[in-house]
From TrEMBL:
Its cofactor is FAD. GO terms for biological process: L-proline catabolic process to L-glutamate. Pathway: Amino-acid degradation; L-proline degradation into L-glutamate; L-glutamate from L-proline: step 1/2. GO terms for molecular function: nucleotide binding; proline dehydrogenase activity. Keywords: FAD, Flavoprotein, Nucleotide-binding, Oxidoreductase, Proline metabolism. Transmembrane segments: none annotated. PANTHER family: PROLINE DEHYDROGENASE 1, MITOCHONDRIAL, PROLINE OXIDASE. It comes from Halomarina oriensis. It comes from the Archaea. This is proline dehydrogenase.
Length: 275
């Protein structure tokens, strides 16, 4: 059972709890991206189990609810081989196509980028209702953006939360921000599939709105559950906003990452424990 202190960042342990949360958020104007917690499997069994769980979730989302899913490559077996990941992603996309649901593919470590790009391209060729995440802290993203401009689907742009070798990344907050703004400009100018602004940074969101007004490119704003939720609701009055909603029994490591990454989150957790 998830303790109350973690409920800010994790919807619950079951599919029913994430769907209940998605209904509540949709009532406030914010749509949901459901993510079953789990990653870095080194055996096929858990990867296949999570694949089956996603397939069930896609079938369980009611027609009245505007929700989609987001999957992690390491959760679907990429560390056991790109073929395992590709098979499991295809199995999820098969059900998504039957149900008319969108599928996001997260991006993880630097050593899985190429395999993730290849699997996404193969899946999106048959089912374009898909989206791929790219990370602006990676130096290679300028080139990757030019490549994916030909893909079907959407691109979610994030600053990047992983820790690749220094020589592969832009170093320092200013350099990453500069890259993120440059990548946003490229996407709004060149990409026709739609842009997802995966950021809580008001400066980046304002920049995206300006680019939307200039180029007319479809876009949405994506933020995490438990982070700037008031802003999510406010923005949803005018723009399309999705909340990334984790759920599942592997909640502990995710919760502690959220607590450690921001001072405000740590203070929230401390207040909740003390009360």
């Amino acid at each position: 059972m998830i303790p109350p202190v973690a409920n800010r960042f994790v919807a619950g342990e079951s599919a029913a709890t994430v769907l209940d949360h998605a209904r509540r958020m949709e009532a406030s104007g914010v749509k949901s991206i459901c993510n079953l917690l789990g990653e870095h499997y080194d055996e096929r069994g858990p990867a296949d189990e999570d694949t089956a769980a996603y397939r069930r979730l896609l079938r369980d989302i009611p027609d009245s609810l505007d929700a989609c899913v987001s999957v992690k490559p390491s959760q679907l077996g990429i560390e056991m081989g790109s073929d395992v990941f590709g098979e499991n992603l295809a199995a999820i996309v098969e059900v998504a196509a039957e149900e008319g649901r969108f599928v996001w593919v997260d991006m993880e470590g630097h050593d899985t980028i190429d395999a993730t790009l290849d699997a996404f391209e193969a899946a999106a060729r048959d089912y374009p209702e898909m989206g791929l995440c790219l990370q602006s802290n990676m130096k290679r993203t300028d080139e990757d953006l030019r490549d994916v401009a030909e893909y079907a689907g959407k691109i979610r742009l994030v600053k990047g939360a992983y820790d690749p070798p220094r020589e592969l990344t832009h170093q320092g907050k200013d350099a990453v921000n500069e890259a993120y703004e440059r990548h946003l400009e490229y996407l709004f100018r060149e990409f026709e599939g739609g842009v997802a602004v995966g950021s809580h940074d008001p400066r980046m969101i304002d920049h995206a709105i300006e680019l939307h007004e200039e180029y007319g490119t479809d876009f949405e704003i994506q933020m995490l559950m438990g982070v700037r939720e008031d802003a999510q609701v406010d923005l949803a009055r005018e723009y399309e906003v999705y909340q990334y909603v984790p759920y599942g029994d592997r909640w502990a490591s995710y919760f502690y990452r959220r607590v450690l990454e921001r001072k405000e989150n740590a203070l929230f957790a401390l207040r909740a424990i003390l009360s």
